[in-house]
Amino acid sequence: MSDFRLEVFYTVAKRLSFTKAATALFITQPAVTKHIHELEQQYNNKLFERKGNTIQLTPAGDLLLSHTETLFAIYRNIDFDMNTLVHKKEGALSLGASTTIAHYIIAPLLAGFKKKFEDIRLNLVNGNTEQIEKALLDKEIDLGIVEGKSKNQEISYTEFIRDEIVLVCSKDHPLARKGVLTAEALKLHSFVMREQGSGTREVIDHALKELGLKMADLKMEIQLGSTESIKSYLMNSSCLAFISIHGLAKELQNGSLHIIDIAGLSIERYFYFIHLQGKLDGLSEIFLRHAQLAYNLR
């Protein structure tokens, strides 16, 4: 339904490469150049400018990209609403999930959703919370699920499911046989931490402050980018780590990792669905409702 030239422009603008856009659209690079040139003639403005071996959007290009993103969102809603009239649900939905959710929560939801709505095409992007929120703001995804405490005023947050973050160690660690650890004693141990921008790390930092501790008070031996890599490191070291309970089912069952209780500390949080402020588009709303029903939520 949309002008193909706008699809070409959008693809170039997102990749900042004529070559990559041509590959993504299965057309030749001269064809990409031709479509962009036609748009520039139509609007009497340069849309891209060269900087050495790279290109970047001009102010006119930035403006056209904003309108194009809005227009494509309208087209998706038109497709959904018109298909609904004939009891069909089809289209494309781009989702984003932060690391813990992508690894331990979302796969069963995606599988169940596809069983119900086989004509809806799904695409999943994963990264830390900061990256998923940026992807939403850049309109690279329609709907996200994230962890974390901070809130961006441009984003709408809907509570999804509750999570608990616990302190764990390997089965061979001396603390695996002890009772409760004091907050002050945390300073005596080495930790494996998630990277900056992680929602898990943000929540831990907030909880520690309530005990009068800062993240800098803990001895960080290494920083890793996923729960799986942290768990593997723990099993081969004397470190401790804070991990979501959702990521520990297998290890707690087989006894390879142990939870350590900390006096006065309980780290609970929600995972959140996120979308841009305003009305949720049709496909995103269907997925959100599907996820809530899957967890018996309203």
Automatic annotation (TrEMBL):
InterPro entries: LysR_HTH_N, LysR_subst-bd, WH-like_DNA-bd_sf, WH_DNA-bd_sf
GO terms for MF: DNA-binding transcription factor activity; transcription cis-regulatory region binding
Occurrences of domain HTH lysR-type (ranges): 1-58
Keywords: DNA-binding, Transcription, Transcription regulation
Keyword Transcription among UniProt keywords: yes
Pfam families, sorted: HTH_1, LysR_substrate
Protein family membership: Belongs to the LysR transcriptional regulatory family.
Protein name: Transcriptional regulator
Lineage: Bacteria, Pseudomonadati, Bacteroidota, Sphingobacteriia, Sphingobacteriales
